[in-house]
Specification:
The complex is a heterodimer of chains A (470) and B (203). Chain A has 470 residues and is of the alpha/beta class. Chain A is built from 17 helices and 18 strands. Chain B has 8 helices and 6 strands, in the order βαββαβαββααααα. Chain B has helices spanning 20-24, 49-53, 79-89, 105-114, 119-126, 137-146, 171-176, 182-189, and strands at residues 2-10, 30-33, 36-39, 59-70, 96-98, 103-104. Classes of the chains: A alpha/beta (470), B alpha+beta (203).
């Protein structure tokens, strides 16, 4: 596959929290193209799944097989027939490639645990963030109620907590996540907010976010720096409370190309080391490729929050913050709520991002973009969508700055004119390729060999050494 | 400062009195009376969390007749007291504690100096937590603790007393997690070595 007409992204779950579904940019803008990531980095391995609608069944069959193969090597002796086991899932996994690969891994975990241990009390606990009704939407959309025979419940940061003693002091997890006798950490490895987590023990992050009360999430984000915050999920994971209930982890593995496999073991630290190595090489090159973009307009066109929509396997937030190398741990802060008095940063220092056009995305509610339109012009397509933003208390000032446009084409034209660029980059949930304008594709294709060389020869050895993986 | 445009309302008859709206209300605007929520419009900061949580789907947000502006300005409390509280808590005055309303740490401290004794009162006075409701919580709780307020968690699960910061970690913890960049981040966020563990004598 090489450059071709823009590809349709994976279908996403409709939510009552999102705007009415709109036609995708890739369907309506004939001038866009999709560039396979292997045109940039030829050694990127082929994935087993990308969420593409026309081959989804076959892809899910491979995910199922990979999950079974990986679980076959896992010691499940901690689970007895009398246990009640919670499979803990985190919502972002359902935003990856339409969510079906993650859902398939979760369903397969249940099947295998029953086969291996004869334990049938397997619950699914869906950690959500956007709203209290989101878990019900996820359970229905992905068929979890049937697959788990009704043993499905959602949980969120405002639900009842449980105090956990850790080496760094008491922390608060969500009681419902741990209302079984044992649990399985069913995760995905998308580096996601690499500007926050810095790929430092990222595999543990759920323990201070998805599974945690809002107080613990606040400590993680607001009371520590990007780097030092990594102590919190580890302290929780290492606590007696967690270790007495933990059985094993199963992680859906990705690269910017898509799903590459499943990594399951009792040793989460080992999984984390493997993932970190892989990510620094693959996501690291894409991150640095994004840093070569000197001017562009981004288009949000998916079924999640704008920050977390993928383009070429990287979330939009990566573009927003790539004024700094997120993986370089010598850089103390990339983005964060805790600010250095000598070098304050915010989320929108990347001046190369000249504008954002919102075709469709969830409004903030829960995710603040407050400062973004101060520095990056935003264009919201359609009055109906604009009203959702006006009513969003998380971003009370956003619509004071953002402009409402009647059509996508109008928004793009205005953004490009103001931003003095003709380069477009689409965040529509796609992996394996970048959907963009021809001008941006040409620019990135010219820059990719240099990025490849820089990462291999200079940055990757440094990133690995900084994490004790040299 | 926060400008509150919306206020919560609900349909009385089908309400089952589950109390979830009361529990998730960040500003103490909802109190149950005879198993029905009573909404104090003056305290509602328009977050909509009660609407989202209501299992019967009988709550909604409506436009306020007049926008409610909540703030504690610098001229309402002595600046020296605010500075001293922030220093004790180890929180930089200039940071936006609430990243949704961009409410500064100084304003949160001012609300505590002015008399807020609980997290709910801080929220009602500043509009903090009217957005995501999450990331601002620990700094606000730490300021309350630094001011010697009672940190006994309220009933149900409104909040838990979590105030840990980078400056609280012991030598033992730093030795256990030597690759956690504790000293390096301390040098970044507190280059003048102004901050330390929160004194516990007032708590």
């Amino acid at each position: 596959m090489s450059i071709q007409a823009a590809l349709k992204p994976p279908a996403f779950m409709h939510s009552e929290y999102g705007p009415p579904l709109q036609p995708h940019v890739s369907e309506t803008l004939g001038s866009l193209i999709s560039v396979p990531l292997t045109d940039f980095f030829p050694d990127f391995a082929a994935p087993i799944a990308t969420g593409a609608a026309d081959r989804l069944e076959a892809e899910l069959e491979r995910v199922r097989a990979e999950t079974r193969a990986s679980l076959a090597k896992v010691d499940m002796s901690k689970i007895t027939v009398d246990d009640t086991v919670n499979i803990l899932a985190s919502e972002h996994g359902f935003g990856l490639m339409g969510g079906w690969p993650y859902a398939e891994m979760i369903k397969t975990i249940r099947e295998v645990v029953i086969e291996r241990t004869c334990c049938r009390k397997i619950n699914l606990r869906l950690a959500i963030y956007r709203g209290f009704r989101e878990a019900d939407e996820v359970a229905e959309h992905f068929g979890f109620n049937e697959a788990f025979e009704g043993r499905v419940k959602g949980l969120g940061p405002f639900d009842q907590g449980v105090e956990v003693q850790t080496a760094i002091g008491p922390m608060y997890l969500i009681k419902r996540a741990f209302d079984g006798t044992k649990f399985i950490h069913a995760y995905y490895d998308d580096p996601r907010e690499m500007y926050f987590n810095r790929l430092l023990y990222k595999s543990f992050k759920s323990f201070c976010m998805s599974y945690a009360r809002y107080e613990t999430r606040s400590v993680y984000h607001s009371m520590f720096g990007n780097r030092s915050g990594s102590i919190i999920p580890r302290a929780l994971f290492d606590s007696d409370f967690i270790q007495s209930r933990y059985t094993f982890s199963s992680v859906l593995c990705t690269t910017p190309m898509g799903v590459t496999g499943v990594d399951a073991t009792t040793d989460l630290y080992a999984i984390d080391r493997r993932i970190t190595r892989s990510h620094l090489s693959t996501y690291g090159r894409m991150q640095r490729l994004f840093a070569e973009i000197k001017d562009c307009v981004a288009i949000w066109d998916g079924g999640r929050w704008g920050y977390y929509l993928h383009g070429g396997g990287l979330i939009f937030g990566t573009l927003l913050t790539n004024h700094s190398d997120a993986f370089d741990l010598d850089q103390p802060v990339v983005a964060g709520f805790m600010q250095s008095p000598t070098a304050p940063v915010n989320f929108s220092r990347n001046k190369n991002l000249r504008g954002v056009v919102v075709n469709q995305a969830w409004v903030g509610a829960g995710i603040p973009y407050v400062t973004m339109p101060f520095t990056t012009p935003m264009y919201i397509v359609g009055e109906e969508q604009a009203q959702l933003w006006r009513d969003d208390p998380t971003n009370p000032m956003l619509m004071d700055r953002a402009k409402v446009v009647d059509t996508l084409e109008q928004g793009i034209a205005m953004a490009c004119e103001k931003g003095e660029t003709d380069k477009l980059l689409v965040f529509d949930g796609s992996y394996g390729h970048l959907t963009c304008s021809r001008s941006l594709a040409d620019h990135l294709l010219a820059r990719a060999p240099g990025v490849d060389r820089q990462v291999r020869e200079t940055l990757l050895p440094k990133w690995l050494a900084q994490r004790g993986l040299g | 400062m926060a400008v509150i445009k919306l206020v919560a309302d609900y349909e009385v008859e089908p309400c089952i009195g589950c109390k979830l709206c009361d529990i998730v209300c960040p500003s103490g605007a909802i109190r149950m009376e005879e198993r029905k929520p009573q909404i104090d419009d003056a305290l509602c900061i328009g977050c909509g969390r009660c609407v989202d949580r209501c299992p019967e789907d009988i709550m909604w947000m409506k436009e306020r007749d007049d926008k409610l502006i909540v703030t504690v300005t610098a001229d309402e409390v002595p600046g020296e007291a605010v500075d001293a509280l922030l220093l004790k808590a180890g929180i930089d005055p200039a940071i936006s504690v609430c990243v949704c309303t961009l409410t500064s740490a100084s304003e949160i401290a001012r609300s505590v100096i002015k008399g807020a004794t609980t997290l709910e009162e801080v929220c009602a006075m500043t509009g903090m937590r009217s957005g995501c409701g999450i990331y601002c919580v620990a700094p606000a709780l730490r300021l309350l603790e630094a001011a010697g307020r009672d940190m006994t968690p309220p009933g149900q699960h409104r909040w838990y007393p979590s105030t840990l910061s980078l400056y609280d970690l012991s030598d033992e913890v730093r030795a256990k997690y030597p690759d956690a960049f504790i000293d390096e981040d301390r040098a970044v966020f507190d280059p003048d070595h102004k901050y330390g563990p929160l004194p516990k004598e007032n708590v």
